[in-house]
Design a protein that fits this description.
single chain; alpha/beta; Rossmann fold; seven-stranded mixed β-sheet; 14 helices; 7 strands; globular; binds S-adenosylmethionine
């Protein structure tokens, strides 16, 4: 595989162990990236097993297509379309496991032309799928101070959202912001120098990236639709890297796993009960990376693996 930067898959062994892989099972890797999870899953499948891999990023898809194996089906698109893909490939209620390893790959962060990193100067693109949608630079150019400020506040939890948004709009009126370095300068000049360990651009870059890629609504749709496509005892595993993602996943799992306590003497059939009580997930648990993993891969420091099982 030719990748630009080596992507070290986070919580790899823990994920594979908790997928409880069946040799002839059907799996979806919704975030192929550089193939860390897919390759491990492939190693555990027999010739009847299948894996459907999805990624928004055409560069990740290029890597996936280099794997010549009859058991893999490569799909360029968003994991928010899993229901549509499952219908297309006739795998509704046949899926044994889904993995969503969220966020960006090291390949994306280190790519000089994508604008994801505030440490490199490049065009402010930030699209995971650079074949469609508008770039971060275009969005900043067309948006009002209020819109920008809301994104920075809601998706980056940025305290100085208003000040930064004001400075962005002011600069854009003089000459459009096109490069990461320009945006970093504006953010630096609009925020007090407090936290020496954290680049002041961290939160704003995160917020703009989440917004441009529709990240939170993609997760919500994929989680909801996973319930329609997993087979009984099939598992959904997610690896999140910040609290906004994790909150959505945690609430989804809790909300779909609560049991209604009905009095025992109410005579109901299982079908009737399932209708009133469609809570069908069993929460298996959550796992954090070990100190050792974090030491070897700093990207793992904020990761949380959550595991749930469809249990009808
Ligand atoms: C953290 S990386 C995955 C790394 C992968 N598990 C590995 O071990 O190589 C996240 C990947 O998910 C992709 N991605 C993020 N959101 C997506 C979405 N909504 N649909 C499809 N792919 C998405 C990104 O393009 C990126 O390649």
């Amino acid at each position: 595989m030719k990748n630009k930067a080596k992507h070290i898959t986070v919580l790899l062994n823990e994920t594979i162990e908790n997928l409880k892989i069946k040799k002839n099972g059907i799996y979806i890797d919704g975030t192929f990236g550089c193939g860390g999870h897919t390759n491990k899953i492939l190693n555990k499948l027999n010739e009847y097993g299948r894996i459907f891999v999805i990624d928004k990023d055409p560069k990740a898809i290029e890597i996936a297509k280099q794997i010549k194996d009859h058991r893999i089906k490569v799909i360029h698109g968003s994991f928010s379309m899993i229901l549509k893909y499952a219908i297309k490939f006739n795998i509704i209620k046949k899926i044994d496991g889904i993995i969503l390893d969220l966020g960006m790959s090291s390949m994306q962060i280190s790519d000089k032309n994508r604008g994801f990193s505030f440490l490199r100067n490049s065009y402010l693109d930030m699209r995971m799928d650079d074949t469609q949608g508008i770039t971060a630079a275009e969005w900043l150019q067309k948006s009002s101070e209020k819109e920008i400020s809301q994104v920075l506040k809601n998706l980056g939890e940025e305290r100085y959202a208003k000040k930064i948004a004001k400075a962005i709009v002011k600069k854009n009126k003089i000459s459009p912001i096109k490069y990461t370095k320009e945006l970093v300068e504006i953010i630096k000049n609009s925020t007090p120098k407090k936290d020496k360990n954290k680049n002041p651009a961290t939160r704003s870059f995160q917020a703009i990236r989440i917004f441009i890629n529709n990240e939170l609504s993609d997760i919500k749709i994929a989680l909801k639709d996973s319930l329609k496509i997993l087979k009984n005892k099939g598992r959904i595993l997610t690896i999140s890297f910040h609290s906004l993602e994790d909150r959505i996943i945690k609430h989804f799992m809790i909300n779909n796993s609560k049991q209604i306590n009905l009095p025992k003497d109410i005579p109901l059939t299982k079908t009737q009960l399932d209708k009133i009580n469609p809570k069908i997930l069993k929460i298996i648990g959550r796992i954090f990376p070990s100190k050792n993993e974090i030491k070897n891969n700093i990207r793992a420091r904020s990761a949380i693996l959550r595991i749930a099982e469809l249990n009808k």
